[in-house]
Amino acid sequence: MSTHDDGISRRKFLGQATCAGFGLSGLLSTMGTLRLFNATLSAQGVPDDSKALVCLFLFGGNDGNNMVVPYDTAGYNAYAAARGILALPRTNLLPLATPGGDGRQFALHPSLPLLRNVYNNGRMAVVANVGTLVAPITKAEYQSGGAAVPPYLFSHNDQQVQWQTSVPDSPKKVGWGGRLADLLQSLNEGSQVSMNISLAGNNFFQVGNEVFQYHVSSNGSIGLNEYTATWTPRKETYGGLRDTLGLSYSHLFESEYANITNRAIANDTLLKATLVSIPTYTEKFPHCVVGTGLSRLGGQLRMILRLISAQQSLGMKRQIFFCSMGGFDTHDDQLNDHAALMTELDNAMADFHQATVDLGVAEKVTLFTASDFNRTFSTNGKGSDHAWGSHQIVTGGAVQGGRMFGAMPVLQANGPDDTGSRGSWIPTTSVDEYSATLARWFGVQEGDLPLVLPNIGRFARPNLGFMG
């Protein structure tokens, strides 16, 4: 239930209109039209079914070294010696079966029991040591400067952008999720709502050349406050705005601003009307209950579930979502802070996956994690610091789960996979390879992968095998 504020300033109105309009597709250029034509040809071999891809970004740099922990005796002892106060007790760990592994055993953080069940049921995969790369690089090349490395390697903002764009050697800030939507948007022909929907505000992942991110909240569409024809105190304001937006403008900026605002209002009206008939699904998230509501991540994933349920009503066959968690910059009090974050992650991801199973859409929904970077293997005395390659998890009915993919680094400070002496792992899997595997499942043909991931040709494994 909303309340009315008697005051609405011009600046507030313009800000709301711009935010609402930001999620709408712009006018297509001739080049964009040609790209759509090519995408239509490429998509002819794609089955006529719906799919949803969910990016869960863990802002701050998740400690993958404590999310996936060595479990065999030799590996654990070396881990405990290196991590010091950050080492988790072996008896608390949740061991994983790793068929086809390299002989080492691994376990999950003790706060991930629900996801361990998803893994054991074959619907969650671990992808090891993923990170931003310009091209494959060895330790010798890194230390000698003989190969390009991602710029500003240990910077939060820069690595977040590079993860989300997958082009660390380019100043362009178009995301790989945006390029993915540009390529496949013809599959949503006739839909008014953008393929790219964010539950976590602005992000680079969903920025496209033609398709732009549409922002919604955990409670639904974000529209203009007090914009209604029936509320008596604002009838004149409503009428005046409608008249203003209906005028013919000769100035290009004024004309386009009016068009964007009109489309934003139409999309807000459509989404609100559509969600009225979609269940709230609160009962599908029993582990996410906090007080009288849900955890922040649980609320985001619940709205994503509702929007997936509304695919047919919205005329959509493809949807790309962005949600997030913060707080992973664990320089201090890491054991307690990281355990709480892992609990929220476990509850929300497991509840979301089970909800897709209950609704019969699990095969069509894939959720994957991403994060700035890993944390150092060695401790700073209270927590850990910025590192590089880390481990990610992927869930969904089409995931070839119950397995670990990619190559685990040698978990040894100053070892063959360490950039120096603190345990900052040089990635053995690139963001490009990780993303390409997801893009192929989403419907991108192999020949079109460079349109989504321009650097994919530099890497040997455009399909890591974790998607069916």
Task: Set down the secondary structure blueprint.
Blueprint: H1 10-21, H2 30-42, E1 51-58, H3 64-67, E2 68-70, H4 73-83, E3 94-96, E4 106-108, H5 113-120, E5 124-131, H6 139-144, H7 156-165, H8 176-184, E6 196-198, E7 214-217, E8 220-221, H9 235-245, H10 252-276, E9 289-290, E10 293-294, H11 296-309, H12 311-314, E11 318-325, H13 334-358, E12 365-371, E13 390-396, E14 403-405, E15 429-430, H14 431-442, H15 449-452
Parallel strand pairs: 1-11, 1-12, 5-14, 5-15, 6-7, 6-11
Antiparallel strand pairs: 2-4, 3-4, 5-13, 7-8, 9-10, 12-13
Helix pairs in contact: 1-10, 5-13, 11-13
Could you explain the architecture of this structure?
With 468 residues, the protein is α/β, with parallel strands linked by helices. The chain has a single domain, classed as 3-Layer(aba) Sandwich (Alkaline Phosphatase, subunit A). The chain is 36% helix and 14% strand. The chain contains 15 helices and 15 strands. The strands form three sheets. Strands 1, 5, 6, 7, 8, 11, 12, 13, 14 and 15 form a ten-stranded mixed beta sheet that branches. A three-stranded antiparallel beta sheet has the order 2-4-3. Strands 9-10 form a two-stranded antiparallel sheet. α1 (10-21) packs across α10 (252-276). It is globular, with a radius of gyration of 23 Å. It starts with 9 loop residues before the first helix and ends in a 16-residue tail after the last helix. Mean pLDDT is 89; it is low at 1-48.
